[in-house]
Amino acid sequence: MKRRQEKWIQIGLIIATFVMVILRFLLNEKGRTNPDSIRFMRTADVFPVIDNTTTPLGYPLSLKFFTLFGFDEFWASKIVGLVAVAVILYFAWVKKFFWKETILTVGLFSFVSIFSYTMSEGLILPFVLLFMFVARQIIIDKIKGIKAYLYLTLILILLYNIRYPALFMMGGVFLFGVLKFRKHYGKTFIAAGITGMIFVVLYKFLFIDYFNEEYLDTFLEIGLHSTSKLLVELFQGLTTVFNPFIHIANPAGGIINVGIYGIGLLNIMLMIFVFLKNKLSETEFFYVFMGIIGVGCSYFIQYFYSVNPIDYRLMAPFSFPVWLVYFRKLYSIFGRLTYVITILSLMTGLLFTYLSKGNYLENRKEITKFLKSENLEKGPIKFFLKNEKELDKYQLAELISTVNPNVGITFKPSDTLKKNVLTQYKVLQKIKIDTNQFQ
After folding, report:
1. Cβ neighbours of 74 (radius 10 Å)
2. What are phi and psi of 384, to 5 degrees?
3. Integer angstrom CA distances of residue 254 from 208, 239, 259, 403
4. What is the pLDDT of residue 216?
5. Residue-level pLDDT at 438
6. Binned average pLDDT, 10 residues per bin, the chain of 439 residues
């Protein structure tokens, strides 16, 4: 009887997760996109032309694949997110690999937000789960020798071709191999980590430099941020990453952020206590170790590489395995009561989504009407901004890119005289967009 009840709880959470992913982007004014989404959709649209090397081709190619079935790049990105959730759940179920924990983790509001985003984090998570599975098989000696080396190396390279921060995973695998050198799998991890990093070097010279010789010069800058600033952002980032209910702090500050950071901090402290009190297996230790390495590398790279501050989205590939281990330990202590965490997270997410709701479909209809009237529904478009800090105007460009993905940004005032260069004034004098606060 208890097993049947738990089964129905799991089915209910799975259905609720898919519904929330869909609601998350439909009840958002711009369909859960950001400035990086513009680049992803444009890259997919113009492929096989390579228009940038800021990110790998894995995610844009996944969008391109679904456009072959008649979807545009925007809807393709939403299908990728939903398919990613389905693949994660199916793999965990078939392989009996962290099944309960996977349901609990993908249902957290932060992961719902990731899968609804037009961003590459949603795509990488199924491959992170595959990476975890392969590593476990090697650790427990189910996969051995050259086969183990090839499997682990290939999955690391695949991860890197979706997101560059997979380089941190390569480093983590190498360090774990060094740490466990005397174990039967130590040399395999060392060899896979080294091979992965050799691939990164070759990728830099053969792909990045070929299309953009100034890539590193553009993004590398020593002393980019002060330690005092980065430490504050690290605290804020981690306390939202590991807050199971609310993963976004109020940019305006206020007392509500004390609660958000406080819940996250308490959860991190509980997580550490649970991990210390309940001995981690060799595999579980590896997963937590990879999470720590990922967070550490993401922090230190900010000193010389221009990236966004640590947040739930950037940390997803590293926090995902940590959440799985955490939920496994909590379930061993509290049993079915552990499901309450994800249920409350989904309820919080539903409330947040409703209170900040916008009508993407209506806004898409308005933008489509405008672009057709200007004969700009196809072909390249430029959107004029005075500077990169005009975030409110960026949001209009993001919305436009969901209809015509071939959108670029220009900062030259003289360009506004061209027919295919849009400004916020040009657009909003002809149509009305839902002006609810953008998420």
Report:
1. 25
2. -85, 130
3. 43, 16, 10, 36
4. 64
5. 42
6. 86 97 93 89 88 85 94 95 98 96 97 96 97 97 94 97 95 96 93 96 85 66 76 94 92 86 96 94 96 95 83 95 97 95 96 88 90 87 78 79 87 83 83 63
**By three-state DSSP, how is residue 421 classified?**
strand
Residue 183 in contact with residue 162, Cβ under 8 Å?
Answer: no
Model confidence, pTM: 0.92
Extract the tokens encoding 130. Answer: 């595959």
Q: How far out from the chain centre does Cα 18 lie?
A: 17
DSSP string over 224-235:
-S-HHHHHHHHH
What's the pLDDT at 224?
66
**What's the residue count for the chain?**
439
Residue 60 tokens read as 């844009």
In angstroms, the CA 89 to CA 82 distance is: 11
Cα(148)–Cα(142) distance, rounded to whole angstroms?
9
DSSP state of 382: E
Under 8 Å between Cβ of 186 and 149: no
The rounded distance, in Å, linking the Cα atoms of 132 and 287 is 7
Strands (E), 304-391: 381-384
Amino acid at 342: T
Q: Is 407 helix (H, G, I), strand (E, B) or coil?
A: strand
Contact 324, 98 (CB under 8 A): yes
CA dist 347 → 109, 139, 195, 205, 260 (Å): 9, 38, 44, 48, 16
Residue 381 phi, psi dihedral angles, 5° rounding: -130, 145
